[in-house]
Structures
1.
Amino acid sequence: MAQATADTKSPGLATDAHVKYVLTLDTKTDELDYWMTEHLRLNGAYWGLCALHFLSHPEALPRKETIDFVLSCQHDNGGFGAAPGHDAHILSTVSAVQILAMVDGFEELDARGKGKAVVGKFIADLQNPDSGSFYGDEWGEEDTRFLYAALNALSLLGLLSLVDVDKAVSHVVSCANFDGGYGAKPGAESHSAQIFTCVAALAIAGRLDLVDQEKLGRWLSERQLPGGGLNGRPEKKEDVCYSWWVLSSLQIIDRVHWIDRQALIDFILGCQDPEKGGFSDRPGDMVDVWHTCFGSAGLSLLGYPGMEPVDPRYCMPKKIVARILGE
Amino acid sequence: MASHNVARTTRVRTEEQRLQEIEKINKYRGLEDQIRSQAALGTYTLQLYDLTTKLLRLNPEYYTVWNVRRRCLLSCLLSTTTDQPASDTQDATPGAKNQQSDGDVLQSEVAFTMPLLMEFPKCYWIWNFRQWLLSQAILRLPLPAARKIWETELGLVSKMLNRDQRNYHAWGYRRYVVAQLESPELDGKSMAEDEFAYTTTMIQANLSNFSAWHNRSLLIPKVLEQRGSDDKARAAFLAEELDLVRDGLNVGPEDQSLWYYHQFLVSQIVGDGNGQSITPALTVDEKITYLKREIDEITDLLEDYDDIKWIYEALLEYNLALNRLEDKSGGAGNLQTWLTKLRALDPMRMGRWKDVEQQAK
Amino acid sequence: MESLSDTQWDVVISGTGLQQSLFALALSRSGKNILHVDPNEYYGEAEAVLSLQEVDEWAANHQTAEGDGVFAAARATRPGGAESLSSRAYSLALAPQLIHTRSELLSKLVSSKAFRQLEFLAVGSFYILQPKATESSSASSLSRIPSTREDVFTNTTISAKAKRGLMKFLKFVLEYDAEPQTDVWRSRAGDSLASFLANEFKLDADLQAYIITLTLSLDGKISTEAGLAAIHRHLTSMGVFGPGFAAVYPKWGGLSEVAQVGCRAGAVGGAVYMLGVGIKDVQKTSAAAETPEEYNVVLSNNMTVKSKAIVKGLGKPTGEGRRLSRLTAIVDSSLPSIFKTVTEGAPAPAVAVVAIPAGTALGEDGVSSEYPIYALAHSSEAGECPTGQCVLYLSTLTTPSAQAHLQKALSSLLASLSQNSQEPPKVLYQLYYEQTGVDTPSVNIDGQTAEFSLLPLDLAFNDAVLDPVKSAWEMVNLNATDEERAEYLVFTDREGADAEDEFDD
């Protein structure tokens, strides 16, 4: 674990390799894994596009094809599936909205897709009227990930008024634990990724006053392990994706300085494949687009030179979020 | 699409291997096409159902196919109930209905997901599907039969947790199953005592199992209420819990899980307004006595473990809390000493120690 | 079929002990012509398991004080006069050993796919038999040795303070071979582990005995260096194959099973096997410049064969060997209390270890043994006796009174296991013998002849036993490429299990 830092004292960010890696993702149609992961295609497009943005190469993916693909995943009810022919789900819907936001495509959604309003209604209909929480789809699974996805997408679409935000907020509050963290539902153990969804949802709703920031900051800062990487829960291994979940939450509550910035940068850089591009969960493992997105997002949050600043609530370029929200 | 714990290797395929893989892709996509084209027609038949079995064994992450399977079950394997959510399966031919009872169908579905769950214990969709199956059991089966299915499910969760003691899905699912077994729909009664004992077992098997400590903290108020514990019994309970976690700290002072649970108990003593208090009726003097005892015990750990940052952090926090209880102003006595230790032992969180120092001033 | 004497053998292997059998396994895919003989009528040599009838015959042949160079002073008795024991229902191991889950032997069995023919059972708790100080009676009691943090946590007999010392030691051992830990013990590497534990970790005599038992040191005087290595092996093996156990035992007879699997692989690979045949004499043919050296091997059935190489065991000690006294007893109880599962989710153990530390009073007259006595208890799950019975394998270093001490130890152990003042379990059959072994296994290579020394007498498999096998393999594969060396004992499944197409069900 310790040698991760030693080996990678200053390898630098292999930007070109990463851009190339993201661009080749959609060409691997002769690999079985490409087809076995189709249920994540739209999410994958979002992760890839994000990575390109954070690496300051937003132009690398052609805009029109991107929009065409996103719209091809939309159902009549407004929701998006992960790929054409896949059922609508809130997770792919938020990815669709985020991609369209990043390529400035909301007008195309109205002109060539089913329109923003229908998307808004699809999401709003998934709110549980009793608890304020959200379902993922018609089959009724509930999770704070879905609540976050709803607030994220609706706020970008300017349609937050379609749902009961206060109820959603009180649901998030009911997911808080004694250790300062949040879980997937009331009573669930604190988990870094769920904390991100809860804290970012509260941030979008403008209710960070409800977070025990001192306690949460303490818990989050303890996620950093001696090797510099961050883990998701106590006594678990570090993983690059937590660079995002933990770090963005720390940023939202203004406590990034509670961890060792340089050690984390070294850890993340140690997880890149400098030749073929992409990031992995830990040094020496297989790279994938998910870790590539969150690895580069983490570096951006840490202020790594040459990177596009990221908005910790949305995992999107700051300037795009600011433009859309008029902040 | 997200790989974890897979070693980075350079993949070189021979032309033969590449062709073999393409052959596999074609078979997989052929199966997928059949499912999609039939589902697009809205005819959820037994044949389509069999195709989903094939595909899900290859790829249990394919959530749309799980949905197709549910529609097939509703349309041609399970009996029609009035409680069903509206679906587009109403025109399915009743003749295709299988003679098997709903109970058999649900049992065999549960059995189908079993090996998948063992192989992919972190796949959300398998857990969701099982949860849906079990909720169907409540809707459709006579109470004893439904209850039996849910009880068996609790056994499965224990098995999963023996294989991976921290599985986030499994713990969440366990709470869900227990809540159902306790519910009036299954003619249940509280299982808080059993579940509390289960956390003890899991903790004894692995002190670092924070998932178990967490669950324990949730069960305590239920257990106390159910026992009808008076203030004296509650105080005794608190003392026992403190002993337990202190025994843990005695052998594992570097363990975060133990310290978090200790902090939880201390928050119950101090009563900082977070959650339900174990002993709601402590006077300020009693709170001070309890807290001082904890501080003494922790100080004693320093004799053998002088390089564990958690000890200094606890002393710092608990002394500050003690000051607040005693309404003393000014920092805790050894604040500077502990902060110096913390900075030396835990330089990664230097920024935090600076903030703590700033605040204490 | 070509006759044996006409065949040009690449290797003649003599003896089916563990090392020769692993050697046969290593060559099982080589395509070499191999003749594998053993003078015994059974597989496994010193690692063999024998039925009761075979044990009786074997004991009769090993009665004398000198024996055959390995085994001696054997005596089989039926204390209960139980003549009716069904011979085939039992298989007693001559030299049972535990295998730690981190042992190189297991990784070799896995990489060679030989593990598929083996069934591994969990070795459960380690106990110490201690005299009950508080009572006037001579009864002793068993204390379970805590060897994980959770064991220490749940233990109620060790004081809080002592627990800290123990935990600090257990933590220390986990990284004992790295700095700064090495600075602590290197200068005292040769001191006894007991003194190191006392001085460095302030462990009292009881805790010292616990730790030393975990090393399974035969003389109890293990050095700090060797002791730390042994404890490290034990602790890091814990939980590797599942919760709650650090070692395994192959069902149906331990290392004998491993040896047989090796021979079976050899046979599948085309080697010819002959039991009851040994090597009587070997003559080197004079090597001309261009032809490689060859041997004329005269077998005990007077057949002469030609071979390029010979691999065999020496079969007797060179110089000073160590001697171990063994007492094996079949008892008429399943002894459920020592085979309890103590960890949630752990498999039921089939083997338990009981130690009686050196100096422990044995029985009423206060006699004590100079060396520790160990008992490996095998439940019927180990496949060595019928349900409702157990096999206890006791051993201690040989002294003039070792046999008497083992006998007393057996009685004390059985007395401590009798429940609720009932009669202690009875011994149905017992076998005493002495075994000679070495401290460090070696191999003597001369030209194309490899001769293995005796094996060590350890109670847990010693990975050093694998080195001579590798040396012998290198001897017959002098020109092996790096790739071939990397493939040593790495095989794919013969059945071609991965060929089945998951897309056609």
2.
Amino acid sequence: MTDPLNFYGVTLTSRLLVGTSQYPSPAILAEALEASKAEVVTVSLRREAGGSRAGESFWGLIRDLGLRVLPNTAGCRSVKEAVTTAHMARELFDTTWIKLEVIGDDDLLAPDPFGLVEAARILCDDGFDVFPYMTEDVTLADRLVDAGCRVLMPWGAPIGSGRGLNNIFGLRALRARFRDIPLVIDAGLGAPSQAAQAFELGYDAVLLNTAIARAGDPAAMARAFALACEAGRAAYKALPIEPRDMAEPSTPVLGRAFT
Amino acid sequence: MKIAVNGEALEAQAGTLAGLLSELGYEPALVATAINETFVRAKDRDACALKEGDRVEVLSPRQGG
């Protein structure tokens, strides 16, 4: 393992984290997860009807694949909801990891930064390893690190929008400000090229769901994202050239004829 | 007593959360529970007395992004 990723003391090889929702079938989900080579998948908790055991088959599928789960608090709109959901997830999934979502706006599914910091502090103090779904705001990131977060997950664009990286400047600033904290682009990616771009900016990992699950061929798209992540990370490590305003000849000028 | 389970009003016979899960046909190991938005650990369900108007949530693993 030459380029490992570390989240809260856990070493990972794959830098692609994948959601498990919206796939056409459980079989296609399993096929796509395998093609993605992801080691971490996001899961959620939802209401169970008495006697239905609806969650059992899904959970069995994930466990059979041997993947590490990152439970989310998706849909929570208050600190109390998010904290309670995190506790329920910790018991049911037997993990201290939690993807913390506190949603402040229904149209954009934008994080509520105020609730996010408060919930993060409560959960970090209670022994959780918090992965906050956040905007790229540097001050917010500071507060989350102060609260105890050791991974940050800024959005690229609103969840499910497929718009890619909306604020390159802000994401660059965040990367420059937090050199030693793993940064994950969470949400908004639509195409593999956008994932590669995230890595070229120096981001450590990407987390996406819709772009794979809603693709015409989810397994093929999962493979494409895996390749793009690998390419983008390799490009970052290879130190790309800086853009220039003017041309610079690549063929030697010395020895040119007719001069 | 009248309580709500996952947002649905119902008349419960059981007096405890563990009894309610059994009454409604849940497999206790496959769900997580909360009452009035406060988490109730699996090991505390036997001792968790229900009262009129309680809002019980019973959740299980699902797909997520």
